[in-house]
Amino acid sequence: MADQFVGYTVSITCRNDLGSYQGQICNVDQKEQTITLKKAFKNGVPQQIPQIVLGGADITNLAIIDTAPDTVTASSSSTVAVTRPVAKRAGRSVSESLVSSKGSQLRDSPRKPTEDICDVNRTPSKKDRLRQRLSEKDEACFGTPIDNILDQDFDFEKNLALFNKQAVYDEINAQRPDIVRHADASRRSQKYRHDENVIASTPAMYRQVVVPAPGLKEYVTDDGLVIPSIMPDLRHQLLSVAERLGVTEERQAELMGRAATEMALQLLGGGHRLNPHNVHQWPTVVALCGSHRQGAIGVNCARQLASHGVKTVVFLLDPTHMTVQLTHELALFRYTNNKLITTVQELPTVAVDLIVLALADELGSQLHQARYRAAAEWANENRAPVLALDPPAAGTPGVDTKFSLVPVLPLAHSLDNGKLYLCNLAFPQQVFKEVGIKYSSPFGPKFVIPLHPNDT
Q: Are 58 and 13 in contact (CB under 8 A)?
């Protein structure tokens, strides 16, 4: 009598410590009171052993999930396919998932043997073929035991070694036209900076300034405008004509000092450093000034920096010989209540934030003095960045300069003057016309522009 249940798919609930099982009955032993299951699942996990034997004393509930194929009558030539138990969803047992899909009545009584019978002699319908494909997908997805897979560690290096990247790249390149491969190879052979164009091109050159006797060098602005250098004689003539037409030495010093002040404020940190809430890091600037036009510009810059709250110290190289313009600038600086010194020993012994350099003029006067050498040595030992104001073309002797600010048109400056910046002194067009210079302003919306050597 019990043999008629062989082949049935059942869900068996055992005592709490044994869990629940699902599978197909392959043997029922009435004498030993045992049931043997094949294709068994325990608590929703496929079992690797081929058969599981359960004792009747351990079983608390048994529900039939599907009937056996041999329950079909002998006169019928059909068969019944037993559906494989599907893996349980989170929060539900396998028996609950299967019973809910078949109907709650399966717990109470077995279905009729003819419910899932398919006639093998008839052509399978479209629904039958779809059901068969879905069944095969379930078998491929859920039919592999995962215990061994979970116990194994994934070997990243071994699997990465299976992917030959170079071979893939070679295969891709082999399918591209020769002209594309050659272009890529030539592009990879070059290294570009962030500000360079990948496509090789010659930058456009615009000449808005033409001088009668150009110097030995040319410069170019960020916008591609070519700025020729001029000879010292033409430079002296240009400044003299401007002063005769009304752009006096005092006005030139004020404009140059204003430009130097703007550069110094940016070098000191701008708004991040010059902040009322940052008084414990307020900067200190030392201006090293000679007794000439450049020295007057340096004192003017120190006075304007003091108006921004910057602590300034002016060192005067030769207080016994001063020009009229320098005397006027010193008188205004004294009203700022900042420090004016005349000896090297009074210079700060601690590091300062910036040095404004105006020790040497274009003629190199006062460079023979021992005081000059001591001041230059202090500047190098202090190791603060140096901003030179209209320095000699060959550089300020003995002082390492990082930035230089030059007026109107540059001389042929050496690399000792560091990074060059050009300042607009607002000369009228008539000034350039009288000295034979064809001039169209290269400054645009800016008052100070950087100059780069024209390597082309």
A: no
